[in-house]
Amino acid sequence: MDQGIAALNEQIKHESEFVRQLTGEVGKVIVGQKYLIDRLLVGLLADGHVLLEGVPGLAKTLAVKTLSAAIQTNFHRIQFTPDLLPADVIGTLIYNPKDGEFRIKKGPVFANLILADEINRAPAKVQSALLEAMQERQVTIGDQTFKLPEPFLVLATQNPIEQEGTYPLPEAQIDRFMLKLSIGYPTKTEEREIMDRMAQTGKQLTVQPVVSPEQILHARKTVDSVYMDDKIKNYIVDLVFATRDPKSYKIDIANLIQYGASPRATIYLALASKAYAFLQGRGYVTPQDVKTIGMDVLRHRVIVSYEAEAEDLTSESVIKRIFDEVPVP
User: Which of 19, 222, 236, 250 is most exposed, with minimal Cβ within 10 Å?
Assistant: First the structure.
């Protein structure tokens, strides 16, 4: 078995070479934000949608556009607004008076990478139309169903500080996102570099396409073959169960959790940990991989109670307690 893992390690080291090229190309435009770029790549490799939350001006939109430009994929940006209709996202039937027929006009959701900008600004009907496309990977217009292209990835952004005129995503819909990222401010050094690079009128920074969609699909198959020991699998299940029944793990936080993580959390933790190991050029998953990616998989799946909110505790502080106290294999 050890020889098999060693061979797999070598194969993955070789096959993950394109990651360096891709991050190098994205780095021509985006300063810092390693966490954001890494997690976008995890979503891409693990075939999971990503929700980005952060104040305006942190290059969320720019990072997604730059990544898509470096991957030779079709990219569409949908700016969500309160007057948006489902047809504006998925498409509609258009009547042609010349022949009296209805023709299908496909919407912007028919692309490889979709940027759903400020997703919480649109009403529930629009959000559910997009989320159905995310879940089923298909769209129905009239009486016809169309498969969405592969790879298909939705990267949605939301602004946490402005609640006026927004429609918060229900928990059941947020659960469809593999990762929810909390984007922070750059460091002082990075901020200076951003100023040097960007504070020029008319300057356009461009990237070259360095990866094909076929390479991404091939890499996904390789990610599936990353070795995960039974102890790691049990550790993932323990972490998720500890969010539902912390008492059985002797963690005194039962009064702080209203709802624990769903079974999707278990599936996504395993997939995202494999993708993260691949990004590190490794053919096997370590407990540290699970811990590193775990907060992004769980932060939107653990709903805290009123008691926790009264004590100013967030789902992140509760999840951190679980990571600290569940025994690591």
Answer: 250
Quick one: pLDDT at residue 297? 93
Contact 253, 318 (CB under 8 A): yes
Give yes or no for a contact between 194 and 63, defined as CB atoms under 8 angstroms apart: no
Beta carbons of 158 and 51 less than 8 angstroms apart: yes
Cis peptide leading into residue 209 (ω within 30°): no
CB 293 within 8 A of CB 56: no
Question: Is 11 inside any structural domain?
Answer: no
Output the six-digit token pair for 167.
């429609």
Where residue 190 falls among pLDDT bands split at 50, 70, 90?
Answer: confident
pLDDT in tens, 142-168: 788 889 888 888 988 887 766 666 677
Residue whose tokens read 């770029």: 37
The answer to whether residues 142 and 93 touch, using CB atoms and an 8 Å cutoff, is yes
Determine phi and psi for 307, rounding to 5 degrees: -60, -45
CATH of the domain at 160: 3.40.50.300
Q: Is the same domain home to 243 and 112?
A: no
State the total domains in the chain. Answer: 2
pLDDT at 35: 82
**Residue 237 pLDDT:** 93
Written as six digits, the tokens of 251 are: 């963690």
3-state secondary structure of 50: strand
Gap between the Cα atoms of 197 and 257, Å rounded = 45
Which residue stretches of 70-145 are H helix? 86-90, 124-136
Q: At what angle do helices 263-279 and 34-46 cross, to 10 degrees?
A: 110
CB atoms within 10 A of CB 15: 18
Residues 17 and 213: their CA atoms lie apart, in Å, by 15
Give the Cα separation of 240 and 265 in Å (integer). Answer: 7
Model pLDDT, residue 308: 83
Distances (CA, A) of 55 to 63, 161, 182, 186: 14, 7, 10, 12
Instruction: Give the range of the structural domain holding residue 271, as residue numbers without chain letter.
Output: 226-325
Q: Are 181 and 50 in contact (CB under 8 A)?
A: yes
Q: Average pLDDT, stretch 16-36?
A: 79
